[in-house]
Amino acid sequence: MAEALKMDPDEIEELFSDCLQRMGLNYYPPCPKSQQVIGLSPHSDAGALSIVLQLNETDGLQIRKDGKWIPVKPMPNALVVNIGDMLEILSNGAYPSIEHRVTVNPTVERLSIVTFHSTHPDAEIGPALSLIDPPHKPALFRRETLKKYYQNFFAQKLNGKTTSLDFMRLGNGDQSS
Ligand SMILES: O=C(O)CCC(=O)C(=O)O
Ligand SMILES: [Fe+2]
């Protein structure tokens, strides 16, 4: 991705050496009223990349594309790689994060394992400096410490693709990086 974006490789190396990795185990019990509940509310992940293993091959994960929810069919031994908000910010919008949700099944349980990959703990989050060249290529997001970025994320309810990005987005006329 860094190569495709023509990013300075040192910049990405510095951000992701000794990076933070968090692992989540999700259990979605069967629910007879599956149409009336949601397993996991719509959201985009806060980290850079998430790797998902749909463990017992039960349907449920869906991504939002052009306003429609598209199922991500579990495939044996296949991993799903999701782009998170941190990569959207880092790429200054070139790689948008993916909004997703999980539905529940009326009769079958569902299990998944996710690993979330972020920058190293002392990093500052913001558009890669090698991608910013105002006024032609202005920064779309501001800079913030990883700590404050996650404090904001975990203080909010999952509510579509807004949780981390709105906190970081620069308003019109405020293009400083
Ligand atoms: O259960 C899944 O397939 C995805 C879970 C997820 O999106 C998350 O934990 O952030
Ligand atoms: Fe997620």
From TrEMBL:
InterPro entries: IPNS-like_FE2OG_OXY, IPNS-like_sf, Oxoglu/Fe-dep_dioxygenase_dom, Plant_2OG-oxidoreductases
Gene Ontology MF terms in the entry: metal ion binding
This protein's name: Fe2OG dioxygenase domain-containing protein
PANTHER family, sorted: OXOGLUTARATE/IRON-DEPENDENT DIOXYGENASE (PTHR47991)
One Pfam family of this chain: 2OG-FeII_Oxy
UniProt keyword list: Iron, Metal-binding
KW Iron (keyword) present: yes
Domain named Fe2OG dioxygenase: residues: 19-119
Gene3D superfamilies: B-lactam Antibiotic, Isopenicillin N Synthase, Chain (2.60.120.330)
Keyword Kinase: no
